[in-house]
Write a structure and sequence with these properties.
Elements: E1 3-11, H1 15-26, E2 31-34, H2 51-58, H3 62-67, E3 71-73, E4 75-80, E5 83-88, E6 100-102, H4 105-119, E7 123-124, E8 128-134, E9 140-145, E10 151-161, H5 168-172, E11 176-177, E12 185-192, E13 204-211, E14 214-220, E15 225-232, H6 234-237, H7 244-253, H8 256-259, E16 266-267, E17 272-275, E18 279-281, E19 285-286, E20 289-291, E21 297-298, H9 305-325, H10 332-356, H11 358-363, H12 370-380, H13 390-393, H14 398-414
Parallel strand pairs: 1-2, 1-10, 2-7, 4-13, 10-20
Antiparallel strand pairs: 3-6, 4-5, 8-9, 9-10, 11-18, 12-15, 12-16, 12-17, 13-14, 14-15, 18-21, 19-20
Length: about 425
């Protein structure tokens, strides 16, 4: 049976896998990628954050992505009952990128994969990992099976699992554990957005508070298509009857901010459902492997954290893998897991504050403090590792303290 040897085997050809593969390859090591799906393929997570740009730049992907003409994204807008809170990344507290893109992921992910192939990293599509055997020294033999059922072995000195929702190693080695976030559901579609207001859009994502714990994303693309999705607890969706399209159109009709713009809108595909996406694992590394991206933990789509955590974790993991291959000692707990959990937990605090309504109080307050707004803007831009920012350093308490101050201030005014 055919056996191939490589320094690093990367599982998954999405952003997590390709960023890691590119950085390791640039250091002169032999890398190959195996991917279960055939590209291009549809996936959600279409609104990037500026922090992604640093990882894409180090992986030498920026030129290829820029050539695709994706919609530039400069901020995020929140809407509730006619009130608007606008965050512009140019105003953020942290020094970093002020822009990013909104992308159709099938095209974006395929662009990254084709670019890493041009660099000399082979990518095998429709290749399913069926077994991994690790030796005591961390080396491994992975069995993959192609679409025709043909098997092949790959010997590797190290494995980077960037398989996203596939979660290959966590599932194979029983490393998964429940997330502490409750199950939520999304119903979404791509629409032909002929009523887009060009003066106000499409250079940012818009998030509409539909009702408590139910929100809507509006993500315009450069080609006139707009991604539109409703997110909430499963019970919300049970209030609508009919086919997915009938439910979707009925939901649109109930939201004043959408009803005119998207009335009778042409759908590119029948609305699709995602449900119970939050997941995690008990550790992000082991003898001979490291987990990156959604394989570590996926939280919620509200702050577009998925691709940021995927690319940043892969950027960091790749550098540590390079050191490991050179024979250096790596403290994976301190140098990888602790750092990634800083970002994950910051985003988690904001996700929980969003669904609790705490962020409603902050986002839609009158006379917002410009410094505080810039600090929160940095989190929305993905700079969740900047502990000089009090709304990162004290993420578990700072938002609630601020909301209480605003509530007290408003009550005194009313009194």
């Amino acid at each position: 049976m055919q056996t191939e040897k490589t320094d690093v085997l990367v599982i998954g050809a999405g952003p997590a896998g390709t960023v890691a593969a590119s950085i390791v390859h640039q250091s002169g090591y032999k890398v190959r990628i195996v991917e279960k799906m055939k590209f291009p393929r549809f996936v959600i997570g279409e609104s990037l954050l500026p922090r992604c740009m640093e990882a894409l730049e180090e992986a030498k992907f920026l030129d290829a992505v820029a050539e695709r003409g994706f919609q530039e994204k400069n901020g995020a807008k929140f809407v509730k009952n006619g009130k608007i809170c606008d965050y512009q990344f140019a105003d953020q507290f942290t020094q970093g990128w002020k822009r990013t893109w909104q992308v159709q992921r099938a095209d974006f992910d395929h662009t990254l994969a084709k670019t890493v192939e041009k660099m000399g990293v082979p990518v095998q599509y429709e290749a399913t990992v069926t077994h991994i055997a690790f030796n005591d020294d961390g080396r491994s033999v992975t069995t993959i099976e192609d679409a025709d059922g043909n098997k092949k072995y790959i010997e590797a000195r190290f494995i980077i699992d960037g398989s996203g929702y596939g979660r290959v190693i966590p599932r194979m080695f029983n490393m998964e554990k429940p997330s502490n976030l409750p199950a939520r559901k999304a119903l979404f579609a791509h629409t032909v957005d002929t009523k887009r207001a060009m003066s106000d859009e499409p250079n940012r994502i818009t998030i509409v508070v539909h009702q408590k714990a139910v929100w809507i994303w509006i993500i315009p693309f450069a080609n006139g298509i707009t991604s539109l999705g409703f997110v909430g607890f499963p019970e919300f969706f049970e209030g609508f009857e009919g086919s997915p399209e009938e439910k979707f159109r009925a939901m649109i009709a109930t939201e004043p901010y959408l009803s005119d713009r998207f009335k009778d809108v042409e759908l590119v595909f029948e609305p699709r459902t995602l449900q119970s996406w939050s997941s995690t694992t008990d550790r992000f590394y082991g003898n001979g492997f490291v987990l990156t991206g959604n394989v570590t933990e996926f939280l919620d789509p509200v702050f577009s954290s998925g691709v940021t955590l995927a690319t940043v974790s892969s950027q960091l993991a790749a550098k540590l893998v390079i050191r490991k291959l050179k024979g250096e000692e790596v403290d994976w707990n301190k140098e990888y897991m602790d750092i990634m959990m800083q970002g994950v937990n910051t985003f988690r605090s904001y996700v929980m504050a969003w669904y609790e309504g705490t962020l409603d109080t902050i986002f839609f307050a009158d006379n917002q403090d410009p410094l505080i707004k810039s600090q929160i803007c940095s989190v929305l831009a993905g700079y969740v590792w900047d502990t000089a920012n009090p709304y990162v350093k004290d993420h578990t308490t700072a938002l609630h303290k601020l909301a209480r101050i605003i509530t007290m201030r408003d009550s005194l005014k009313e009194g």
